[in-house]
Structure formats: structure tokens, C-alpha cells
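thread: overnight batch results

M.L. [08:02]
morning all. the overnight job finished for the chain we discussed friday. pasting input first so we're all looking at the same thing
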Amino acid sequence: MSTLVLPSSPFVLIDTNLPASAARRFYRVTWDTPPPKLVWINPGSYTMGSPIFEQDRALDEGPQTAITFTQGFWMGQFQVSQAEYLAITGVNPSSFAGDLNRPVETVSWLDATNYCARLTAAEKLAGRLPAGYAYRLPTEAEWEYGARAGTTTRFSYGDDPDYSGLANYCWYGSNSGDTTHPVGQKLPNPWGLYDMHGNVWEWCLDWYSPSYLGGFLIDPLSGLLGSERVVRGGSWKGLNRFCRSASRSSGDPAVPGPNVGFRVVLAPTS
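M.L. [08:03]
and the structure it wrote out:
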């Protein structure tokens, strides 16, 4: 069984995968209310990592790897806010208090995955969770797929060699005033995701590896075991080059930091 999200209504669907020998095929159409503050990410393919000639490239961004997703998933439109984290966990560990619309930070990878589990339980109890779905952190491959939003440039809005356009999309060391900012204040990427560049680093599901596998991967899951987990996206205290779509770093999964938060993915549990 596969799921297709129709891009418009009405919509004509021609099934190009129908075998010539098939006498008939049955389809079920349902109307699902989109989950709030989530963006549907269609299945597709992209190249993960940066080419060797990319400006400000780091060695851990390769070798480039062809990724294909056979199923779509929902991704958080925004970084998880302090208000959202407080509502689920009952605490707000953030260093930058005073505005609950800022992203939650000073959370470890363990805190972030615990939030996802508790959010799943709460939404399931309220009857708002699609059957067979759960909230979790994005894999590193999912994160970069969402960040690039169909682009191959250094940023989702272009290469920007002198970083002259970065402040339109990103809170980072040069424009943040040494603090986080409420989510969603900068321009979104082409898929409607905000703050994929900057504000706070974002935990990913994967263990960090100093290089990719290369070649072709289909529906990759979290990587091999390691000692640190992947963080992506750059932050309010970071350099401009760390906000590139391919840039990556890592952290101890048990250690929180005032420049690290996360966003969620809603995806099939399989």
C-alpha cells in the first residue's frame, strides 16, 4: 500500500504503475486534516552532501550520496518552541526565557527524543494521530532533504557567495544579538519550512559519522553506532558557513546546550 497526497482539488490521477496484466485495481480516497504546523514532504530523490568545490565546504560533507525516499513524511514547519515543549513536558529548560515563541534549547538529544515519544502518546490519546504514525526526530537524510527543498545550491535560496542574503533567512552570529529569536520570523525555504538555516542547531536521529557512505541509498534510516549524535542547521552564535544546507556537526546525546534545539517529523512507524 502506498500513500499519495493530492496537490490540488479536483485532481486527475493516472496510475502509471498499473501492470498491463492487471484486470482491475482498487483505490481508497480519504480526507485527512493536515496536522498543525507540519509540512508534507513528498517522496523523491536528491544528492546529500556538498560537491568538493563548494565554498566553505568541510570534509565531513562527503562523499556525496544519492538518496531516494519512497514515502513522504510530515516535517515540523518550525523548530519546537518553548511553549510546545512546556505543554508536553511541564518544564522549560531554555536559557533564553521571556518569550515562549522562541525555540526551546538547552535540551539534550535524549530530551528531544523523550519529547517526541510523549507527544506521540498525547496525540494518540486525543485521537489526532494517523494510524501507524509517530513523532520522532528527522534522520539526517530527511533533514537535509527538507532543508534543500529541491535546491542544489549552498543555501535553499541560492549560493550567496558573499553571504549578503543570509540575514533574510537566518539568525546567526552576525545578526542575532547573541540570543535566539521567535520561530518563523525569517523567510521560509521553497517548501515552507522556517529556520532551517540558523536560530538553533537541530538534533537529528542519527549517530554522527565523519563521512557518508557514498553511492545510492533508498529510505536510509539512522546511521551506525557512535558516540555523538548529528546536529544540523547552524545557530544564533555560529559562523555563516555553518548555516549552509550541507553543513553538519555533532554533540554528546546526553549534554544540552543553549544553541541546540530540534524540530519533529511525523512518519510511519515502519
